[in-house]
Write a structure and sequence with these properties.
The complex is a heterodimer of chains A (about 190) and B (about 70).
Chain A: H1 9-22, H2 32-44, H3 48-53, H4 55-66, H5 77-80, H6 82-107, E1 116-119, E2 123-126, H7 138-164, H8 170-173, H9 175-190
Antiparallel strand pairs in A: 1-2
Helix pairs in contact in A: 1-4, 2-9, 4-7, 6-7, 6-9
Chain B: E1 8-13, H1 23-27, E2 33-36, E3 40-43, H2 53-57, E4 63-68
Antiparallel strand pairs in B: 1-4, 2-3
Classes of the chains: A mainly alpha (about 190), B alpha+beta (about 70).
The complex binds iron/sulfur cluster (SF4) (3 copies).
Chain lengths: ~190, ~70
């Protein structure tokens, strides 16, 4: 099949993750892949982002498919169960809010800037080399660290399930995919 | 049908478990799959040739290839 420009967005995803190693402030760009999927599904009632533009899904597809880094086994039943998908979405959102709260504390001056990236909600990795000061408020830098932690965590989880199961297993329980599908379900339900 | 004993194969999606990621639609050489309203995948049985590529690709493994009587 003919490749379109949007079939190469996995390169953008890869660059994004690499940029975060060099300058943490770049991670603000990642907000795009937080808002675009939601805007697309609210505006058009489709999962257009997942179906076409998501570079992260493509990256797993390329690494697991072309590079053969996947066992290509079926994902266990419980992982595609709605209880797990919705549960993971809620857990993810709660952790996201906690990250925002920590950012707020730095904004409010109640907490110092933490130059760490938290992986898998547990491991605090030192990440000071990617911080070169900021022209903005310290809170802006704190958000960058926090948000990169979210992105890195989902990438690591995605890579693990990519290796164990099918390349794009992450897409089964990806909170963004679950959210956009829920929006679409709500919209489709309202239509006659 | 003309060819006796030759069975036709076609893909069927377990739509309740589909996550609408669109991986199947992307890989299908016949463009036989559509993601309906961002909710689930739908196979067009007239276009599907039963090659099974979509079933292998589907991350949730919710596509099965059936033989339909011919
Ligand atoms: S489910 Fe998540 S990772 Fe997969 S295509 Fe959609 S947004 Fe991207
Ligand atoms: S690949 Fe599987 S889960 Fe994804 S849209 Fe197709 S049938 Fe649904
Ligand atoms: S079996 Fe082959 S032709 Fe049929 S929908 Fe799947 S990929 Fe397309």
């Amino acid at each position: 099949m003919k490749k379109r420009w949007y079939d190469y967005l996995w390169i953008v995803s890869l660059l994004y993750l690499l940029l975060g190693f060099f300058n943490i402030l770049f991670t603000w760009l990642g907000l795009l892949c937080f808002f675009l999927p939601l805007i697309i599904s609210v505006a058009t009632g489709t999962k257009g982002y997942c179906n076409r533009y998501c570079g992260r899904g493509q990256l797993f597809g390329v690494l697991g498919g072309r590079f053969g880094l996947s066992r290509k086994k079926d994902i266990p039943g419980w992982m595609k169960h709605k209880a797990f998908r919705y549960g993971f979405l809620i857990f993810f959102l709660v952790m996201f809010l906690l990250m925002l709260w920590n950012t707020y504390l730095v904004f409010a001056g109640a907490q110092d800037l933490q130059q760490v990236v938290t992986l898998l909600w547990t491991f605090r990795l030192p990440w000071h080399w990617a911080y070169h000061g900021t022209l903005f408020h310290l809170g802006a830098a704190q958000f960058a660290f926090g948000f990169y932690g979210v992105m890195l965590t989902s990438t690591v989880l995605g890579l693990i399930t990519m290796m164990l199961f099918k390349p794009r297993s992450w897409c089964v329980y990806c909170p963004m995919g679950t959210m956009t599908q829920l929006i679409c379900k709500a919209k489709a339900g309202k239509q006659p | 049908m003309t060819s006796v004993g030759k069975k036709r194969r076609t893909a069927a999606v377990d739509q309740g478990a589909c996550v609408a990621c669109g991986c199947c639609a992307k890989i299908c050489p016949m463009q036989a799959i559509e993601i309906v309203r961002g909710v689930m995948a739908q196979v067009n049985p007239d276009k599907c040739v039963g090659c099974g590529k979509c079933a292998r690709e589907c991350p949730a493994s919710v596509i099965e290839i059936w033989e339909v009587g011919a």
